[in-house]
Amino acid sequence: MSGLLEAIWLKRAHRGKMDPVQHAELIPGQGVVGSVDRSRRRQVTLLERENWEQALAEVGGSADASGRRANLLVSGIALAETRGKLLRIGETLLSIGGELTPCERMDDVHPGLQAALRPAWRGGVFAQVLEGGAVTVGDRVSWEG
Prior knowledge:
Elements: E1 2-11, E2 18-21, E3 23-27, E4 31-32, E5 44-48, H1 49-59, E6 72-75, E7 86-89, E8 92-99, H2 106-109, H3 113-117, E9 125-131, E10 133-136, E11 140-144
Parallel strand pairs: 5-6
Antiparallel strand pairs: 1-2, 1-6, 1-11, 3-4, 3-10, 5-9, 7-8, 7-11, 8-9
């Protein structure tokens, strides 16, 4: 099963706006170059486009996926229940650390969105960078091993 990297966002400041970019550099043990709010555990955040759209449909809303505030938007690949799995994006390799719990800020995007993103890991996942390198919108996304 393979998918597609549909979008990349960098966050310049805590609670700051998400800047769309075509390319980003991922550094092992650190995360996305130029994006704040990284930690040793939560180096990169990923959202599945299909889950975002499904949650919005449930609340009768529409909003750009950047509203979720993740670094990477993927499609065609399921992220639910993938803790410990290895994900290849372009030349990089990520280890999925766990589920991203949607916060109350999601209700600022659209009322009810926080609850709609809770089931089945719809809010996305966080990961650690094992093999760094460049990622580009349009890169293939696939599970390793």
